[in-house]
């Protein structure tokens, strides 16, 4: 996908993620790639406060070309871009239901729709501290052939051809986790 205005897209998707509760506080980060340039949200800034003025431009080696300090998960975004030349946008969220699954260590089913034909589970990346090289490397490995990963004890990462695709996938995963939780609760109530 061609980003007509990647900075605008990073801003719009960040605000949407914040307003719809897929993150709170300073959680989450968003990026878009255009050629060998990556536009990413700044670190320690709530996604609800991302604007055209504070999106950071970096190269694929993580060198800052324009702006302040990039997200502490820049390495993770870059590893996924390196592993997936087809990916143009990435979101990292702390979606409440999916995050609860990641903390409980319960896998989220791939439901019909975006995630295929209801077979298998979204892969879970074993816990490494947020922002660590290990987390970034493991995520790059897992997402070579997966568009989404659950980060154990942490949250969700989704990639797409465009940033909008990554966002829609993150929304679908949160809905899947919520639905799975309700369905499993109801099953346990069956007489
Ligand atoms: P940043 O503010 O550095 O992007 O960190 C937020 C986050 O969710 C880390 O995993």
TrEMBL record:
Residues 8-181 form the Class II aldolase/adducin N-terminal domain. GO terms for cellular component: cytosol. The keyword Lyase applies. The keyword Lyase applies. One of its GO terms (molecular function) is metal ion binding. Keywords: Lyase, Metal-binding. InterPro entries: Aldolase_class_II_sugar_metab, Aldolase_II/adducin_N, Aldolase_II/adducin_N_sf. GO terms for biological process: pentose catabolic process. PANTHER family: 3-OXO-TETRONATE 4-PHOSPHATE DECARBOXYLASE-RELATED, FUCULOSE PHOSPHATE ALDOLASE. This is Fuculose-1-phosphate aldolase. It comes from Methanothermobacter thermautotrophicus (strain ATCC 29096 / DSM 1053 / JCM 10044 / NBRC 100330 / Delta H).
């Amino acid at each position: 996908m061609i980003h007509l205005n990647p900075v605008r897209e990073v801003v719009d998707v960040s605000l949407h993620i914040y307003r719809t509760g897929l993150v709170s506080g300073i959680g989450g980060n968003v990026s878009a790639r255009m050629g060998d340039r990556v536009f990413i949200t700044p670190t320690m800034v709530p996604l609800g406060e991302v604007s055209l003025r504070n999106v950071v431009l970096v190269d694929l080696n993580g060198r800052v070309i324009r702006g302040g300090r990039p997200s502490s998960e820049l390495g993770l975004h870059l590893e996924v871009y390196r592993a997936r030349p087809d990916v143009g946008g990435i979101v990292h969220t702390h979606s409440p239901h999916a995050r609860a699954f990641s903390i409980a260590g319960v896998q989220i089913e791939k439901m019909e729709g975006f995630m295929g034909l209801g077979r298998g589970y979204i892969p879970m990346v074993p816990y490494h501290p947020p922002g660590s090289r290990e987390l970034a490397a493991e995520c790059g490995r897992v997402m070579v052939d997966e568009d989404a990963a659950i980060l154990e004890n942490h949250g969700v990462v989704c990639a797409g051809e465009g940033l909008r695709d990554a966002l829609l996938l993150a929304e679908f995963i949160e809905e899947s986790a919520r639905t799975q939780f309700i369905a499993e609760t109801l099953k346990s109530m069956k007489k």
